[in-house]
Specification:
alpha/beta, Aspartate Aminotransferase, domain 1, Aspartate Aminotransferase, domain 2, seven-stranded mixed β-sheet, four-stranded antiparallel β-sheet, 14 helices, 41% helix
Length: 366
Amino acid sequence: MKIVNQVPEYIRSLVPYTPGRPIEEVEREFGITGSVKLASNENPLGPSPRALKVLKEKLSQIHRYPDGDCFYLKHGLARKLDVSPSTLIFGNGSNELIELAVRTFLRPGDEAVMANQAFVIYRLVAQAAGGSCRIIPLRDFTHDLTRMREAVTSKTRMVFLSNPNNPTGTIYRKREWEKFLEQVSPEVLLVADEAYYEYVTDSEYPDSLRYHGRGRSILTLRTFSKMYGLAGLRIGYGVGPEPVIAMMQRVRQPFNVNAAAQWAALAALDDDEHKSRTLEVNRQGMEFLERELKRLGVEYVLSQANFLLIHVGDGRKIFEALLRRGVIVRPMKEYDLPEYIRVTVGTAEENAKFVKEFEAVSAKVR
């Protein structure tokens, strides 16, 4: 087909994103039941109860188009974050906001700087727009802000910064971040992806919202998928300078955030009990997994998120062996980490099942 032949090489060479496998698919393939999914960094407690309550109350209204401006959610979140509503934009997950930022500010031939072994969507979206990706290696599994700063050229329009980083769970800290800000032009858009920021316990973590203003171009991205347990509804938000947000709004499609997602997100905002329970389950689960991995003599990367990057030898074989035992984790070959798997912190029962099955298969595979 001629139309296919005319697709540019930067599209042809893209490798589609591979999501975590759903429980239903795995159980159907292997004829098993009782599987656990620890592959996609979802909240093991499920969605916010307040979100579920409002969804049940409002489902009869889904024949109406959603609020195209997310008015009530926008004002509720603005109050919680103490920002102006005009600095907020919502998307079909923070993934869509990454794409909106690229479509708005990156032209063919422009450069975007990002870390290797960071969220693969940055590279996919920038390349799909005809941009050139400058990929900087991690240092000790963490963003090397010095080398990323040095990679910025006159062609650089955007720098992607994942903090905590997915898939490593590591963070860069205030001192590095502040030095980076001093040395990067305010004309470069800094996309601070903070999907896991609620889980961070390190006091030196630089909340990027505290650095907005002062002439800087910072777009902070966050999500309702993780802490609030609304991954299936697909809703995230961005906070940035009014001119940046205004331009992204021109590119955003109408009704990009569905009504159910807006209702649920607004209700979840004030569900402090659910947030506290989630953090406690994550803390206990992380301690358990770290203790058990040390017992087994298995190396892992210290994490400030809700997952662990674990060195297992042959990540693909361990992944496949665990699948057959009803434990879904994430192999890391697509992140150039073929010897690793990423494991989400689950409930106590899910974590125990992972350790049991991992111990059983690792001796045979590693």
